[in-house]
Design brief:
The structure holds two protein chains of two kinds. Helix content of chain A is about 30%, strand content about 20%. Chain A is α+β, with helices and mostly antiparallel strands. Chain B is of the alpha+beta class. Helices cover about 25% and strands about 10% of the residues of chain B. The relative contact order of chain B is 0.13. The chains are: A alpha+beta, B alpha+beta.
Chain lengths: ~325, ~230
């Protein structure tokens, strides 16, 4: 591991000032991803700017009736927060579906949003990877790609975003607060992430030095209160998703008044399934209607031999989750 | 548990702390110089104050030193084990501020002055911690390498359950929302499925899970009885 300097920032301005003092500097929060990438030789910062003392670790009510989640809030604290569990259950479930108890105690909200892909070529510095070393190539299309993208991938990169939390936040229409060179700004989570396109080196739309300071949830509604997260993985626990779904449903007289649907582990970003949502609105929720709506969304999919299973997996996850929400029950917790 | 009288060469408790604190060690909020590009050389080590099992220590540590390596190599507390060094196996689990964490992913320089408890610090003199006793009573290990991490993890996990934290297999995260004193996920309510899910961050390659789960359930009941 490359030797590095360490500074503890006490406010966002100081953090930005410190991180811009070197092109190789990086922010450090929980460290569960960054320290590992440094040990692997994937990340080689010469300065770590510890932002855990510069960011809020509180969840506060907003004037609009939503919640402002400080970027330093630990995943475990957020998952256990009574307001999250009552009003945004999909978020609590997504957090609890990720990592382990020990890791959730370290990992922060900001770091979770900005964690790097787990593609085996990205995490192995001895292999080519357009994300880690632009222009070096991508062996994944013809190599190991069982975990990788089926939607929105480019010829240069088929990595997926590994976060469970971000999938739930995408379904919730969460906002992100950022401090950067131009001061503070806010954007939708949808605007934070990007497809790999012709520049896979960038996971997000953030500029160098940008610091995520908070995540904002919109006011709780009947729609968001009836929400759930379901995750399929190779083990019963403690594994990244092969596919996951975050869903919310508001039904009146048996017809969909409003619906949210987002997929995880299918793309370079959490995948908000707006086409499927449009197809579902106004109709009934049955195995057939949900499957048909998801197929509209997946029409643009470009699966590879090793990951084509993700399409029926995503369809089945959506069917199971939305029909369970329609029945007024949470999906079977044991299979999340 | 005994601790070595003299920490490794990395540390020298007799050296007075620098009278002029380095920026890397500063905790006060004095504004730093804005133009840091002028500082061409950056320190890559710091004097770090660690509070381990109630014993304060001052160590000169390379910033790359994980908490796990500081505990094992600089302090000589080898109870915490290095399995994968990537946060995947849980053998390095310790309690930081009373909460279980993977010490291999924590940089020692980031946890100054925060209470750290390792497996060596759990017992009360010669009286084992109830989780330690339960592991002995249930023969909850074979080779024993993952055991310190399993035990520290169980101690942290039972506190989480007592605080009403749900898990991924808790029937309903909404139904379990703490409402006054009525918390439905206290440690004594845990069943085997809850223990397996909550302990999923600790791997045992001997496959001693069949005895680990009953040991943790015993400890949960002992905790509830106290």
């Amino acid at each position: 591991m490359r030797a590095f300097g360490y500074e503890r920032a006490t406010d966002r301005e100081g953090a930005l000032d410190a991180v811009t003092s070197s092109p190789d500097a990086a922010y450090l929060a929980g460290g569960t991803n960054l320290v590992d990438l440094m040990r692997l030789g994937v990340a080689t910062p010469d300065l770590l700017v510890d932002v855990t003392g510069a960011l809020s670790n509180q969840v506060q009510a907003t004037a609009e009736g939503g919640l402002l989640i400080g970027a330093a809030v630990r995943n475990s604290d957020l998952a256990a927060d009574p307001r999250i569990r009552r009003d945004y259950p999909v978020l609590s479930q997504a957090l609890l579906a990720g990592a382990s108890g020990q890791l959730r105690n370290l990992a922060t909200v900001g770091g979770n949003l900005l964690q790097r892909p787990r593609c085996v070529y990205f995490t192995d510095p001895t292999k080519p990877c357009n994300k880690r070393r632009p222009g070096s190539g991508c062996p994944a299309r013809t190599g190991v790609h069982r975990d990788l993208a089926v939607l929105g991938a480019s010829e240069h990169c088929i990595a997926t975003h590994p976060s469970d939390m971000a999938v739930a936040l995408t379904a919730l229409d969460a906002g992100v607060h950022v401090h950067g060179a131009g001061g503070d700004r806010a954007l939708q989570l949808d605007e934070l992430y990007r497809l790999s396109g012709d520049d896979p080196s960038r996971d997000t739309t953030l500029e160098p030095g940008d610091l995520v300071t908070a995540v904002e949830l919109p006011p709780a509604t009947a729609l968001l209160r009836r929400s759930a997260y379901r995750k399929a993985r190779d083990r019963a626990s403690y594994a990244f998703a092969l596919g996951s779904v975050a869903a919310a449903l508001d039904i009146a007289d048996g017809r969909v008044r409003d619906v949210r649907l987002a997929f995880g582990a299918l793309a370079h970003r959490p995948w908000r399934a707006r086409r499927a949502e449009d197809a579902l609105r106004g109709g009934r929720v049955t195995d057939g209607t949900v499957a048909a709506a998801v197929d509209v969304e997946l029409a643009a999919a470009d699966p590879l031999p090793g990951n084509a299973f993700k399409l029926p997996l995503a369809r089945n996850l959506a069917v199971a989750t939305l029909t369970a929400l329609a029945a007024g029950a949470e999906p079977d917790a044991g299979t999340r | 548990m005994s601790e070595p009288a003299d920490p490794s060469a990395l540390s020298d408790p007799t050296t007075p702390r620098p009278t002029t604190p380095r920026p890397t060690n500063r905790r006060e909020t004095t504004p730093r110089p804005t133009n840091r590009r002028e500082s061409s050389r950056r320190e890559t080590s710091s004097r770090v104050r660690l509070d381990v099992n109630g014993v304060p220590r001052s160590l000169q540590l390379d910033h790359r030193t994980s908490l796990l390596d500081a505990l094992r190599n600089a302090i000589g507390l080898t109870g915490s084990k290095k399995g994968c060094d990537h946060g995947q196996c849980g053998a390095c689990t310790v309690l930081l501020d009373g909460r279980r964490v993977n010490s291999c992913l924590v940089l020692a320089v980031t946890v100054q002055d925060r209470p750290i408890t390792t497996v060596e610090g759990l017992a009360d003199g010669e009286r084992l911690h109830p989780v330690q006793q339960a592991f002995l009573d249930r023969d909850a290990f074979q080779c024993g390498y993952c055991t310190p991490g399993q035990i520290c993890s169980a101690v942290g996990m039972l506190a989480e359950a007592d605080a009403g934290w749900p898990s991924a297999v808790t029937r309903s995260v909404t139904g379990a929302v703490p409402d006054g004193a009525d918390r439905s996920t206290r440690a004594n309510d845990l069943d085997a499925a809850e223990v397996r899910e909550r302990m999923a961050g600790n791997l045992c390659r001997c496959g001693a899970y069949v005895n680990i789960v009953p040991a943790v359930l015993d400890a949960a009941l002992a905790r509830a009885a106290r």
